[in-house]
Amino acid sequence: MFTIGMIAKRTGTKVQTIRYYEQIGLMPEPGRTEGGQRRYGDAELDRLAFIRHSRQLGFPLDAIRELLDLSDTPDRPCHEADEIARRQLKLVEQRMERLKALRSELKRMVKECSGGNAAQCRVLEVLRDHSECLTDHDNIGV
Amino acid sequence: MFTIGMIAKRTGTKVQTIRYYEQIGLMPEPGRTEGGQRRYGDAELDRLAFIRHSRQLGFPLDAIRELLDLSDTPDRPCHEADEIARRQLKLVEQRMERLKALRSELKRMVKECSGGNAAQCRVLEVLRDHSECLTDHDNIGV
DNA sequence: ATACATCCTCTAGCTACTGTAGCTTCAAGA
DNA sequence: TCTTGAAGCTACAGTAGCTAGAGGATGTAT
């Protein structure tokens, strides 16, 4: 039997985050002591670890919910999980592309700044004049 | 004189977003018609373009506030703007590193999935067992 | 005069937590 | 058994940066 603090430490999660997961139905309601404190077993610990690891890989909570469902019903076909992972991979790759473009523009800005005062600042100038911008940024989701 | 819809279209911003910027003090309160509708001039249009371009480069609103201050006082030294840009560049590079690690783990997961049912699913297995994870992910900020 | 697009304010919602206040319970040591 | 301090409890507010919707007013073209 573990307290919430114990599974928090073991999985590197904040206590409040675990309670939050319970609130949104991602973690089950655990048993309680007579005094009302939560007590967890190994299954819950595993589930939380699964959630945390998925989060670290950037999966949104909704995707994690699906993955947990799949994990709970072992006879369902695997391709659903596979597809969720592929979707996530694609998202990560898109973000990387986007960051690459940002990086090059930022690098250019910083490089050209020769240090004077704000009136001649190349950084500010670039920000002011969008036409100098080489890349297209449609969506902002960095 | 432009309506809010016009500067929205010109800068690729949603109307609500402009009102939000006004609310948090990033955009000034513009003049109004007798009926109470906002009317903007060129200065405001430029300011909004500056904000949007900065956002597209990933600068947080606080940083943009500083950049706008600098831009408004041309005799202040430039290195402050330079430093903000450098900070942003560093952040972008950190995020890229992180995404690279995620990508490789996701790729591995997806590659090893041979398609069967959830019980043998490699994706779920990897998520379940954190010890298979090669990279360390301390903070999640993807 | 009327139709219709656009504008207004206000409120609530989104993701994924995180922090605080004010109080209670648990477990170990004396 | 009593005390003490850490850790637990609920409930609510706040974070970033918007976005959506209700319900009504205004502006402009015909």
In short:
Two copies of one chain form a homodimer. The first copy, chain A, is an all-alpha fold. Helix content of chain A is 60%, strand content 3%.
Descriptive overview:
Two copies of one chain form a homodimer. Chain A has 142 residues and is an all-alpha fold. Chain A has two domains: 69 residues, Multidrug-efflux Transporter Regulator, Chain: A, Domain 2; 54 residues. Chain A contains six helices and two strands. In chain A, strands 1-2 form a two-stranded antiparallel sheet. In chain A, a hairpin with a 5-residue loop joins β1 and β2. The structure holds a DNA duplex (30 and 30 nucleotides).
What is the CATH T-level topology of the largest domain in chain A?
A: Multidrug-efflux Transporter Regulator, Chain: A, Domain 2
Label the structural class of chain A.
mainly alpha
Q: What is the CATH class designation of the largest domain in chain A?
A: Mainly Alpha
Main pleated-sheet profile of chain A: 2 strands, antiparallel
**Percent range for helical residues of chain A?**
55-70%
Low-confidence stretches of chain A: 134-142
Counting DSSP H or I runs of 4 or more residues, the number of helices of chain A is 6
| Beta-strand residue percentage of chain A | under 5%
Mean pLDDT of chain A: 87
Which outline of chain A best applies? elongated
Strand tally of chain A: 2
